[in-house]
Amino acid sequence: MMNSQPLSMPKFSALMTLTILIALVACQACSRGGDTAQGIIVVNAPAAGEIRRVLAHEGMEVVAGQPIVEIVIYSAAQSAATTGADDREGRAGMTIQAANAEVEAARTEVVRHEVEVQRLMSLVSSGQASQGDLDGERALYQLAQQRLQKAKTAAQEAQSGLVAARQPSLNSSIATPSPVEQIVAVRASGAGIVSALDTRIGERVVAGQPLATIRTH
Question: Quick check: 204 pLDDT over 60?
Answer without folding.
Answer: yes
